Amino acid sequence: MWNYEKRLQYPVKITQTNPKIAKVIISQFGGPDGELAASMRYLAQRYTMPYKEVTALLTDIGTEELAHMEMVCAIVHQLTRDLTPEEIEKAGFADYYVDHTLALWPQAASGAPWTATYLQSKGDPITDLHEDLAAEQKARTTYDNILRLVKDPEVCDPIRFLRQREIVHYQRFGECLRIVQDNLDAKNFYAFNPEFDK
Amino acid sequence: MSNYHSNNMYQQQSNQRGYMQQPVTRPRYSSNDPLEDMALAMAYVPWQTWQQIYEPCPALQRGTIFKELDKPFLGRGGRNR
Amino acid sequence: MNNQMNEPMSRKEMLNMIDEISFSLIDTQLYLDTHPCDTDAIAYFEECSRIRNQALRDYANCFGPLTIDTVTSACNDRWSWVNEPWPWQEGGC
Asked: C20: buried, middle or exposed (CB in 10 Å: 19+, 13-18, 0-12)?
């Protein structure tokens, strides 16, 4: 089960609103390669994972991604705090505002709502870990793309932190894949699915 | 060119198939592949070991305690390099 | 808790210290999940954990609880968990 700590993993202190960039950054909340998808993916995969180290890592990274989701939401919230209707319209933020006012709602930058189709939990350790490795790279690329668009150092700062975490997670999932390999016969890793076949 | 002398696929290919093929430079899959003993059709990430780590203050700023995983983004906007 | 100048830490300084030590802890934790026998990492984890737990108690005593486990440290007749600021708000984090 989960505990909550009343702090962000890394501080978010943005003094200048910018709804235009908020519309882009919200993709890391409710988009295909965002933190919510990452968290749900890892937490879902862990229930049937047959290797305890991998189960532990999926649990711990899945939990950390919730903290990252909270950071992304804090960024979007501070970028859109106390906007006037004129500022909203001028920034092209009216589409989101009419349905959500200034609240946070999980969607991609395109406006597409968050969906479980953004993740897979395939029930095979090799497959799921490849999914996880890819997810971390996709998230990193998304942060790279955001960094190219952002000018405000108060926004860049937490974004850089989140990007670096993806690289560390990639290394950990890579090590999990090595652990799975060590538990299988290298002559044929695909002879059976250790999560299902007994 | 020295590329054509060692690891030269050219001669073998034309002998086997009886027709001329494109000459190849030294292939990536030479005997110097550090993964040559690993099983095919699989991906491998190297094992990290516990080296010197950052103190807590720079660690939080960098986004990791591990110097060897600290890989910042240095790119800029919009153009191919 | 005092800083190096031996003056009491501000809320911001104490929170920053908790952020830093907690982060070192979690990065070590992930490493240990895939390296469960690494004794250097275990020793570092235990050191960070000790510092962090003390810091969380000290913070709760001075400024209010960050965790449900430290609510009782801020002993008074009001449920302090509901207090602001929340992490995403001005002055929060």
From this structure: buried
| Total residue count of chain C as it appears in this document | 93
Interface test with C, best of B45, B47, B51, B53 (most C CBs within 10 A): B53
Could you tell me if B76 lies within 8 Å of chain A, comparing CB atoms? yes
Angle made by CA atoms A160, A134, A153, in degrees to the nearest 5: 10
C3 CB within 8 Å of a chain A CB: no
Chain B residue numbers with beta carbons less than 8 Å from the beta carbon of C28 are: 65
Cis ω before C85 (30° cut-off from 0): yes
In a domain, residue C50? The reply is yes
Residue C28 resides in a domain: yes
Cα A50 from chain centroid (whole Å): 24
* pLDDT tens for the 198 residues of chain A, in order: 999 999 999 999 999 999 999 999 999 999 999 999 999 999 999 999 999 999 999 999 999 999 999 999 999 999 999 999 999 999 999 999 999 999 999 999 999 999 999 999 999 999 999 999 999 999 999 999 999 999 999 999 999 999 999 999 999 999 999 999 999 999 999 999 999 997
Predicted model pTM: 0.90
Please state the domain extents for chain A.
19-182
Domain that holds residue C59: 11-82
Q: Which residue of B has its CA nearest to C16?
A: B57
Q: Cis peptide leading into A153, omega within 30 of 0?
A: no
Specify the CATH superfamily of domain A19-182: Ferritin, core subunit, four-helix bundle (1.20.1260.10)
Instruction: Indicate whether C46 belongs to any domain.
Output: yes
Report the domain count for chain C. Answer: 1
- Torsion on CA atoms A192, A179, A43, A77, rounded to nearest 10: -140
